[in-house]
Every structure is written in structure tokens, then in C-alpha cells.
UniProtKB/TrEMBL annotation:
A Pfam family assignment: Ribonuc_L-PSP
Gene Ontology molecular function: deaminase activity
InterPro entries: RutC-like_sf, YjgF/YER057c/UK114
Name of the protein: RidA family protein
SUPFAM superfamilies given in the database record: YjgF-like
Similarity section: Belongs to the RutC family.
Gene Ontology cellular component list: cytosol
Length: 128
């Protein structure tokens, strides 16, 4: 049976959007695409702060599941203005992931539900 992974600060995903920030099934944790709004729902104007915020949210979901970034097996990042902040993204990502690195796909998109968001990341983690 799938088990929802819901950090307290992300409870609005369940109540407002009827989705789990993470869902564990058969040792895998599938994460909803998370944007770069901070824990208070505020969205920074610059991509660097948004990228930092989204990695912090990923960390919250992993921690709630009893996992860490070393458990990530796949990451898909969606970007508005990919080439404008790709180097910043790579630098920030390198602070969180380590070998063996998760598989990663970066995709340029036209926009997100949240106006002003420039990044959304979806991940899959696996228990060892």
C-alpha cells in the first residue's frame, strides 16, 4: 500500500492540491514536482534563491521519509529560462548530490502554475 510522505510545512499540498509531496511504494519514494517557493510560500525574484529553496524542499521530503540525498536515483528539472540559470543550478545541485549521481534530465518549459516560478524538480528516491 502506498504511504504518503508529508512534511508539516508542505501540508498545503494535501489540503489545497490533493496530492502528496512524496509517496512511498515498494521502497521507492516518488516526489511531486516541487517549485522554488520557500516554506512560507514566498517566491524569490532571482533563480538562485528559488533553486536553493527547491533543494531544501526536496530535503524535507527525504528527511520525512527517513532518507537523504544519497538515496536519489532520478531527478527531472523543469526550467523557465534554462540557459540563464543552468550554471547556478549545476553549482547548487552539486552541494546536495554525490556519487553515485542520480540520473538527471533538464527540460525547458514555458511556465508553471505558480507565476514567477523558474524551476520545478521532480525526484525518485529508493531505500537501500
Amino acid at each position: 500500500m502506498p504511504k504518503p510522505i508529508v512534511p508539516k510545512s508542505l501540508q498545503s499540498y494535501v489540503t489545497d492540491w490533493m496530492m502528496s509531496p512524496g509517496l512511498e511504494h515498494d521502497g521507492f519514494v516518488f516526489m511531486t514536482g516541487l517549485t522554488g517557493a520557500d516554506a512560507d510560500g514566498l517566491l524569490a525574484d532571482n533563480p538562485t534563491d528559488q533553486i536553493e529553496a527547491v533543494f531544501e524542499k526536496i530535503g524535507m521530503v527525504l528527511t520525512e521519509a527517513g532518507l537523504g540525498f544519497e538515496h536519489l536515483v532520478e531527478m527531472t528539472s523543469y526550467h523557465v529560462g534554462l540557459r540563464d540559470h543552468l550554471n547556478a543550478f549545476k553549482d547548487i545541485r552539486a552541494k546536495y548530490v554525490s556519487e553515485p549521481f542520480p540520473a538527471w534530465t533538464a527540460i525547458e518549459v514555458a511556465g508553471f502554475v505558480r507565476e514567477g516560478a523558474c524551476i520545478e524538480i521532480r525526484c525518485i528516491a529508493r531505500r537501500n
